[in-house]
Write a sequence for this structure.
């Protein structure tokens, strides 16, 4: 069998060639080029000529790392991601527990899933500007509701307060993504063999115990997957912070992606600084995802090995049984 | 005892239902406010920003919106061209790459697959400055092809397609087709592609939506107003020219969100099944 398919080996290269060429042109070359620009003096709109910074190659990196604005942006990015991920995961787990618990049979679960996921499918640019309008001052819809309910005595200008601006960005991110996370987690829970739950019920486990001792350990891989994809998405957050308050007020919603964009495509068009910042982000993302991927892959293989052993044992038992 | 237990159940069932209703209201109320306000005049909105009764200013808001730089037809067309092109290329070439990884045995196969897993995590934002400079140098910044062609290399879709193909594609069938004298590309197009249909449908929906909603790369590359995509058009609503025209801004937002909401509600069953599949396979 192996020998037969050997002659076709060259087709493997042919079929994968378009991918590889496109990757070289549109990903690898731009990435190396970005890395290279980080060591040059390329600045100014429309300029394409540049000089390698031979006397101090890391000048741009130093400038970025010591820039207070970049530090603020990096801090904001992590803060916004963490503060949105925790409630997002909490909500998603809670809903997953409710929706997969057969005893509850939540009324209209299907419709709820559709509605919870809806914000995720709408253009983020639309959502950013919609929320800007919703929190308008003095008479935006949110202020209108809060003052007529008597929660606020007078309209509050959310859009000029640093804390409020950040909190709203965090809220938007959570609001857009908890439905997605819930669907992913639900599908993971539904993939767990019902026999395990039945066995636990026979042993007298209650809903809480079943959730913590069976559901969570069994969806560990999917939880890690959610964590990694959310983190990488979060570190590249652009549309919402860029359009909701343009990174303001006072850089409170400035993320690293918005920072890179502003460096390169506004003001004095500092392509070299933006490139250095991109590379710093690449290092951070690579490091974090390498760690997480290592954990993720290990777990997967372990589970596979265990499963194989379990089946071998079952098989042996079965064989013995038949012989007797 | 039994009655007590079932009472407790009913109470938690009702509590869960109430929580879900609250979340559902939270999910849709911004869109309802948006749709209603799209029909109300700026003066009405300023007096009371929340209302559930549509007003009569739909057409005047529409005229006001189009009287300035916002052109939904151009944005719609450009977004459509880019999204269709991206989806077609991504789906076809990812299936092709996955086929090359699953069906053939070649020396670098495993290394190539590991390489794809590695680059899956590199976000487009990181390479953008170099990409922009490259495109600028060859004077293609306002060429939509520059936003479509990169889709040929979509690592995460290759990964998904490979996972889907491995158990569902029978190598015996391919062997049989070869004996009948079919060429390798013909076998891929006529045997493998039909088998992949369910996976292609799922991936196509998400690629289309992601491309449709993408702001970052088009915002950098496109400077010609005639080439603007819908998200760039939307970003114009944030500008000074619409600052005091609340009705027109809501109108513009509604115009961009409504088609997505309708398509989503029609296809929600498949979309949600697709999200679930992506999580399990990923």
């Amino acid at each position: 069998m192996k020998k037969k398919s050997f002659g076709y080996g060259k087709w493997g290269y042919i079929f994968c060639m378009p991918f590889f060429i496109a990757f070289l042109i549109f990903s690898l070359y731009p990435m190396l080029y970005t890395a290279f620009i980080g060591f040059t003096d390329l600045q100014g709109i429309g300029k394409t000529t540049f000089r390698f910074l031979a006397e101090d190659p890391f000048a741009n990196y130093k400038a970025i790392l010591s820039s207070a604005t970049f530090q603020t942006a990096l801090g904001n990015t992590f803060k916004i991601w963490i503060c949105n991920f925790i409630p997002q995961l909490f909500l998603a787990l809670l809903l997953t527990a409710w929706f997969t618990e057969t005893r509850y049979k939540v009324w209209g679960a299907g419709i709820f899933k559709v509605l919870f996921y809806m914000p995720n499918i709408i253009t983020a640019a639309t959502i950013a500007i919609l929320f800007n309008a919703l929190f308008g001052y003095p008479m935006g819809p949110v202020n209108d509701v809060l003052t007529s309910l008597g929660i606020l005595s007078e309209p509050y200008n959310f859009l000029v307060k640093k804390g409020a601006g950040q909190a709203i960005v965090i809220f938007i991110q959570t609001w857009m993504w908890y439905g997605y996370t819930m669907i992913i987690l639900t599908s993971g829970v539904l993939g767990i063999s019902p026999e395990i739950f039945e066995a636990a019920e026979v042993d007298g486990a209650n809903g809480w115990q079943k959730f913590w001792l069976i559901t969570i350990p069994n969806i560990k891989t999917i939880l890690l997957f959610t964590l990694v994809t959310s983190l990488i998405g979060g570190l590249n957050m652009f549309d919402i912070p860029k359009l909701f308050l343009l990174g303001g007020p006072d850089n409170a919603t400035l993320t690293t992606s918005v920072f890179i964009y502003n460096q390169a495509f506004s003001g004095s068009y500092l392509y070299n600084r933006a490139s250095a910042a991109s590379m710093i982000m690449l290092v951070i993302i690579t490091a974090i995802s390498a760690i997480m991927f290592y954990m993720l892959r290990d777990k997967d293989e372990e589970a596979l090995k265990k499963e194989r052993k379990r089946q071998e044992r079952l098989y042996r038992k079965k064989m013995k049984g038949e012989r007797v | 005892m039994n009655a007590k237990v079932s009472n407790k159940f009913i109470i938690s069932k009702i509590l869960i239902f109430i929580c879900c209703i609250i979340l559902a209201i939270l999910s849709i109320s911004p869109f309802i406010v948006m749709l209603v306000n799209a029909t109300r005049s700026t003066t009405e909105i300023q007096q009371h920003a929340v209302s559930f009764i549509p007003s009569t200013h739909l057409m005047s808001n529409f005229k006001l919106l189009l009287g300035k730089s916002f052109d939904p037809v151009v944005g719609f067309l450009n977004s459509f061209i880019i999204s269709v092109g991206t989806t077609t290329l991504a789906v076809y070439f990812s299936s092709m790459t996955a086929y090359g990884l699953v069906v053939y045995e070649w020396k670098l196969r495993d290394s190539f697959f590991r390489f794809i897993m590695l680059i899956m995590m590199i976000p487009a934002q990181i390479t953008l400055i170099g990409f922009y400079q490259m495109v600028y140098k060859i004077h293609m910044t306002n060429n939509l092809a520059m936003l479509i062609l990169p889709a040929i290399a979509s690592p995460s879709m290759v990964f998904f397609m490979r996972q889907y193909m491995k158990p569902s594609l029978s190598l015996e069938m391919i062997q049989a087709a070869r004996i009948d004298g079919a060429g390798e590309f013909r076998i891929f197009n006529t045997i493998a592609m039909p088998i992949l249909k369910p996976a292609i449908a799922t991936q196509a929906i998400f690629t289309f939506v992601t491309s449709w909603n993408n702001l970052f790369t088009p915002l950098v590359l496109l400077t010609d107003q005639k080439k603007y995509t819908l998200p760039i058009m939307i970003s114009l609503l944030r500008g000074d020219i619409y600052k005091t025209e609340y009705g027109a801004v809501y109108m513009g937002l509604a115009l961009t969100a409504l088609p997505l909401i309708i398509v989503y509600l029609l296809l929600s069953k498949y979309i949600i099944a697709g999200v679930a599949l992506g999580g399990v396979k990923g």
